[in-house]
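Thread title: Can someone regenerate the structure for this chain?

I was given the following input by a collaborator and told the matching structure tokens would be attached. They weren't. Posting the sequence so someone can regenerate them.
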Amino acid sequence: MLTRLHDALRLRTSPAIFFSSAAIIIAFVVGTIAFTDPLNTAVSAASDWLLTNLGWFYILGVTVFLAFLIMIAVGRFGRVKLGPDEEPPEHSGGAWFAMLFAAGIGSILMFWGVAEPVSHFGDPPRGESLGIEAGTWGAAKDAMNFTYYHFTLHTWTIFTLPALCFAYFIHKRNLPPRVSSIFQPILGEGIHGPIGKLIDVVAIVGTVFGIAVSIGLGTLQINGGLNQLFGMPENAGWQLIIIGVVCGLALISVSLGLDKGIKVLSNINIVTAVLLLIFVLFAGGSTLFVLKGTIESFGSYLVALPELALWNDTFANTGWQNTWTVFYWAWTITWSPFVGIFIARISKGRTIRQFVAGVLAVPSAFSVVWFGIFGFSSFNIELNGERGLVDRVVGEGDIPGALFAFLSHYPAAFFVSAVAIILVIIFFVTSVDSAALVTDSMANGHEDYNPLGQRIFWGVAIGVITATLLVFSGANGLEALQSTIILVGLPFFIMGFFQMYALYRALQEDAGELPQVKTREWAQVLPPEEYERREEDEEYDTEDYVVEPTYTTEIPVLRDPYEDVEEVEENGVSSHATLPARTGSGRADLPEGGRPESR
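Best answer:
Regenerated them for you:
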């Protein structure tokens, strides 16, 4: 039946995956609108239970992912190429780094660049447990520690793990661009069966919800900016209009295709964002303070990182971490397949070591610069300027309007704020556009020709889910987004552990196991006096003993494990020869046989 419906609609996808995902999305929308209060109560209760009982699992999970990535990168598998062994990288280093910069960080930077540091400065996360007073230098230091913790290495760990898995299984094993492909070492051909399809449905639905939360946050921020500039009311009606405009622009971009749509908008984003960053740095009158503070705070973060990576607010138990860190990790991991596939696409030909180092380091470094400049510029306003940011963000709870309240303290505030609103809109247009393309490829299992209607469907689905969560959920918009995404994130964290196992197993299968290390053996040494006694005593045999340390076997010869032992090289060197001998790097100081003369 699904196949007939698929053909009647002239689709070109996997009927089971497409229609199952669509059915879940439609059921959620209809159920939320029809049963608003009961569903909201159920979601809130389930979310609260997860936060209370499994918040630690989210915290531990991301840190374990980071440790695994570092282990893989520095180990012997770090030299494995993501693609054919002899194929060079598709993109130059500079182009690759530039694309990593654009991968998924724009919306995060714009929404939280001011809101995060100011929130923690005015309400320190560990104020009760460590005695940190709000609005002090100690509060500023702890605020930046948590800001970097939330938006540098750990956030990009969540993106890097699935991205590495996608890159390996798509480019090395040539599997379809689906989350189920990552589980091929476990499922085998079962990736095309019911379990594989279930994994893909969960991934697609989770990605749609994750992007919807991002668009929801952007909608709140755009509404806040328009309220600041033009007095536009912050209500459901205007938020629906904003969602419609953003998704409408995204559908136009989808229709134009990758080169004319996403690529042009991404280039505009990058240039405008960097110009805004430079403006904030030099126009605020505190350039030296901001630069020194950014460098100092990064050092403080590195010192605090081991503690923060496992901190669970055990003793104070304020609940702060549940609404901040756990929300971030759950939100980020839901749309990690979308970012992961994009990063995997541009990384063919890189080694695992290059991949992990680049994807973790480059966006994290830019995030340090961005949050350092916006954070310390905000602190300067509070400590040395007109103040008001803490009252707006912490006192009034206006997190979406934080950026525009901040820019009101700068020259040409109206113009710069208008540019910021346009920048936020473009960031979210590209997010919806890219998500529609990636979600469609996950449903299809290939990246070839796909009907335009399919991509438009996913773009519309993201918009509808955003409107449902933000406007029709019967709760405060931001709270509804948080509660829903914490639930959706749980299966993604569970899958993350299986992804680590699947990748490591695949690497072992494809690269093979290293043989046990062999060493030359040595004779048993006795003290001279004991050796003489045993020589004189007929009951002892001293044949296996020596006084001077002496080895008894040859130095083991390491042969190239990648050569067929039956082949003979054209240059006359046998494949049984040592690897140094066949590569011209043999030890010239050793006599024939490879053993130094005994003393």
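DSSP finds 23 helices and two strands in the chain.
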